[in-house]
Amino acid sequence: MLTKRIIPCLDIKNGRTVKGVNFLNLRDAGDPIELAKKYAETGADELIFLDISATEERRKTLIPLVREIAKTINIPFTVGGGISTIEDVRLLLQNGADKVAVNSSLVKNPDLINELAATFGNQCIVAAIDAKQINGIWKVHLVGGKVPTGINLFDWAKEAEQRGAGEILFTSMDHDGAKIGFANEALFQLSKKVNIPVIASGGAGKMSHFEDAFILGKADAALAASVFHFNEIKITELKSYLKNKSIPIRI
After folding, report:
1. Which stretches of the chain score pLDDT less than 70?
2. 239 located within any domain
């Protein structure tokens, strides 16, 4: 059985790690290079770096910062934010990223998934999907959650898989930063809909929330930010907790 993965996320704005609630009210969470080093040393399975304002500000991802983090860590490293072309992806991979997470550009130009997968391989391409419930239906949002679309979360995830995405990173905007647990019903539906790994994001507040994401949501990985950044949950302790709950995890 494949082990479940624990993934800290560095949301980056103006070169600093930040964290908000429901994508709003951002506060400083520390130096991204120091945090990345800490997570690599304390048992994180992977690290995700999201330049959260790159798309809105119509600029590219912060390459020098990506390069510095990549030199600091020895775990798989996914980078997202402001990616819209094959050249963007090539530059990130050349500067230490192992995978790229792309959101808005894929929705606006779905053929880009096919092109990226054909050029770099499915394993490099993470389809990042931010969604929230509108009248009880999960709808995809773009540009850091600021632009709603009429696109159904589950239909889009399936299309992304069919076009060549190797992984889905699903963030529930309703749960983001609220520490009420992951969107386990939606995660369960996603896991039934697609045959590629699903990363749960948005809602982690205590250790049992990770357990629920894996057991109830059938997620393959669980991502969190503030509970790790502010030392509310230590990754080593979380992994011991999950192992004691008979969840396959790498210690």
Report:
1. 1, 19-29, 53-61
2. yes
What's the rounded Cα separation, in Å, for the pair 185 and 195?
17
Give the span between the Cα atoms of 200 and 186, in whole angstroms.
10
Please tell me the distance from the alpha carbon of residue 155 to that of residue 96, in angstroms, as a whole number: 32
Distance CA 158, CA 112 (A): 15
User: In this structure, what CATH number is given to the domain that contains residue 43?
Assistant: 3.20.20.70
- Phi, psi (5° rounding) for residue 158? -65, -40
Residues whose CB falls within 8 Å of the CB of residue 89, separated by 6 or more in sequence, listed in order: 83, 100, 116, 119, 120, 124
Tracing tokens 């798989």 back to the chain, one arrives at 76
**Number of domains within the chain:** 1
Closest CA to 167 of 202, 193, 128: 128
Q: Is 11 among the residues known to form the active site?
A: yes
Domain of 237?
A: 5-244
* 249 within domain boundaries: no
- Is 251 contained in some domain? no
Query: Would the pTM count as exceeding 0.85?
Result: yes
Q: What DSSP assignment string belongs to 153-196?
A: HHHHHHHHHHHT-SEEEEEETTTTTT-S---HHHHHHHHHH-SS
Q: Is residue 250 one of the residues assigned to a domain? A: no
> Of the residues 130, 176, 212, 220, which is catalytic?
130
Predicted confidence (pLDDT) per residue in 69-119, tens digit: 999 999 999 999 889 999 999 999 999 999 999 999 999 999 999 999 999
